[in-house]
Design goal:
By secondary structure, the protein is α+β, with helices and mostly antiparallel strands. The chain has one helix and seven strands; from the N terminus they run E-E-E-E-E-H-E-E. Helix content is 20%, strand content 44%. The longest helix has 17 residues.
């Protein structure tokens, strides 16, 4: 299954209010989930944190699934795997 820019509602840790997270692409097959975030600028550490958050949310939603995270720097055509 392929999901492009689909909203995920999660509670904010500080306020308890629901906030929206929207990964660029989520791919699901059997017990594996891959989240990809597309970036068009230079690499930044905050992008890693963003993908890690998506990975954590998806792991919480689908326990028992293997979750992978990737950044794709489109203009550079460079992909980078993000560790948990």
């Amino acid at each position: 299954r392929l999901f492009n820019e689909c909203n995920i509602l999660v509670p904010d840790a500080e306020t308890g209010r629901l906030v929206t997270r929207r990964p660029d692409r989520v791919m699901m097959a059997d017990d594996r989930i891959i989240v990809v975030d597309f970036k068009f600028g230079s690499p930044r550490e905050e992008y890693h944190s963003q993908v890690r958050e998506y990975m954590r949310i998806l792991q919480d939603m689908y326990p028992g699934h293997k979750v992978e995270g990737w950044l794709w720097y489109v203009y550079r055509n460079q992909v980078e795997e993000i560790e948990h």
